[in-house]
Write a structure and sequence with these properties.
With 440 residues, this protein is of the alpha/beta class. It is 40% helix and 26% strand. The strands form five sheets. Strands 4-3-5-10-9-8 form a six-stranded mixed β-sheet, sandwiched between helices. The chain has a five-stranded mixed β-sheet with strand order 16-15-17-18-19, sandwiched between helices. The chain is elongated. The chain starts with 7 loop residues before the first strand and ends with a helix.
């Protein structure tokens, strides 16, 4: 990867490093791999927010993350993870395992990986003792282990805790080890690591855009956009699905910020031309936010009548600040009697077609619009499960009707998932029907 290797000493924000960092400092840093260490992360007891924070911060300076590894508090596992991460990237950032207890083995793992011994640094020991003195707390013997670092490496200063970080070099790759405590890790990353990475890659730039889509599945969208998701392209197009929303993330990486933005913009334009009305927003926009803006722009009001979604649609709508400008009221008419008494759904309609039917969904929407005096209304009825299905009406069957000032549009959907997903997908689909209806 590196055409030349210059061995010298470089000062990095208060700490010195020996090795081939001269190559990196002239803009050769390209990619980062993250290693998270800790049994508590693997068990699910602790959510790994550190890796997500590091990746977000790296993107801001134009340095992409290409892999993330999570390993247990075991020295062989740590060594293997360091080797794998070094194969993936030019920079490796490790979090966790720098505490004073017997299960904190990052220092030992680093030493084995580098082929050196741990050495006690008296200057670090003095600093740790002084920190305990300032706190008025006695220092126990185990804390002295935090003053041991692999021989020949240096430290990332930690002004917020007792565990200094480690910075090392091997085979032209740079390795940082930071504490797992988020408060300490985030501050050390900002103070000492990110400025170095930014200095090493001054010409590297990344532009990230997101398109939010609804109305088609992940596989359908992937089929529509064809080769855009090939892994050998720049920009990369990544695809994720969550609760009926498909997010297409465009990531362009170049040597100049302006060029990265142009690449991302061209890709966004191409995707919009292909996907058309499937694209409802950008960034982190929700369907409820987009629908709310449309209602305000048109000066229209909305009422809701829900059965199987149990008020979830109203929650999504009112999660948006300022929803009172367009949302008038809603009903949760779970029983047949409630549908009749609150919304005026004729009992004979329910008897003839069943509560879960196109006809009842339309009657709910019309009743809600009339009683609320709203411009638009939505009626939802369905079988969220796990009970209530028949041969003719399967689990996940939902009817959604949007009434636009007396013009009703009803959709039949079957969401073949468990109860929570059926309800959420139904609510999101209702918002999408409303969005598209207002665009016409």
């Amino acid at each position: 990867m590196f055409a030349r290797r210059v061995v010298h000493k470089v000062t990095l924000g208060g700490f010195q490093v020996h090795g081939a960092f001269g190559d990196l400092m002239v803009g050769r840093v390209k990619q980062v791999s993250i290693v998270s260490i800790g049994n508590e992360v693997l068990s699910g007891h602790t959510v790994d927010t550190n890796a997500a924070h590091i990746e977000r911060q790296l993107r801001l300076i134009g340095v992409p993350t290409v892999s993330s590894h999570t390993v247990a508090d075991l020295q062989p596992a740590i060594v293997r993870a360091l080797k794998l991460a070094a194969e993936d990237a030019d920079i490796v950032i490790v979090t966790g395992g720098l505490g004073p207890t017997d299960d904190d083995l990052t220092r030992e793992g680093f030493a084995e990986f580098l082929g050196v011994e741990l050495e006690l640094r008296e200057d670090l020991l003095v600093r740790i003792r002084e920190m305990f003195q300032r706190r008025g707390v006695p220092m126990v013997r185990k804390n002295a282990s935090q003053a041991r670092v692999p021989k020949g490496t240096d430290v990332v200063p930690n002004e917020w805790g007792t565990a200094p970080g480690i910075v090392a070099e091997k085979d032209g790759k740079v390795f940082f080890a930071l504490p797992g405590v988020p408060r300490e890790m985030e501050r050390m990353l900002a103070a000492s690591v990110l400025p170095r990475l930014q200095a090493w890659a001054p010409s590297q730039a990344m532009a990230v855009r997101k398109l939010r889509c609804c109305g088609a599945g992940e596989s359908t969208i992937a089929e529509m956009i064809g080769d855009a998701m090939r892994r050998d392209r720049n920009p990369l197009v990544n695809c994720t699905a969550h609760s009926g929303v498909i997010t297409l993330e465009i990531v362009a990486t170049t040597d100049a910020a302006g060029e990265a933005e142009r690449l991302a913009e061209r890709q966004e334009t191409a995707l919009r031309e292909i996907l058309g009305p499937l694209v409802y927003g950008v960034g982190e926009e929700t369907l409820a936010e987009v629908v709310g803006r449309q209602l305000q722009r048109l000066g229209k009001t909305l009422a809701l009548a829900e059965s199987c979604t149990g008020g979830l649609l109203a929650k999504l709508v009112t999660d948006v600040p300022g929803a009172s400008r367009y949302f008038t009221r809603g009903w949760v008419t779970y029983s047949n009697d409630a549908k009749t008494e609150e919304l005026g759904v004729p009992p004979e309609l329910i008897a003839r077609h069943g509560a879960v039917s196109e006809q009842v969904a339309e009657a709910m929407a019309r009743g809600a619009r009339a009683r609320a005096g709203a411009d638009y209304a939505i009626g939802i009825t369905g079988i969220a499960g796990p009970d209530g299905a028949t041969d003719q009406k399967p689990l996940g069957l939902v009817f959604i009707c949007a009434d636009f000032e007396g013009q009703a549009r009803t959709r039949r959907e079957v969401f073949p998932w468990e109860r929570g997903y059926v309800r959420l997908h139904a609510a999101q689909t209702a918002l999408d029907i409303l969005r598209r209806g207002m665009d016409r």
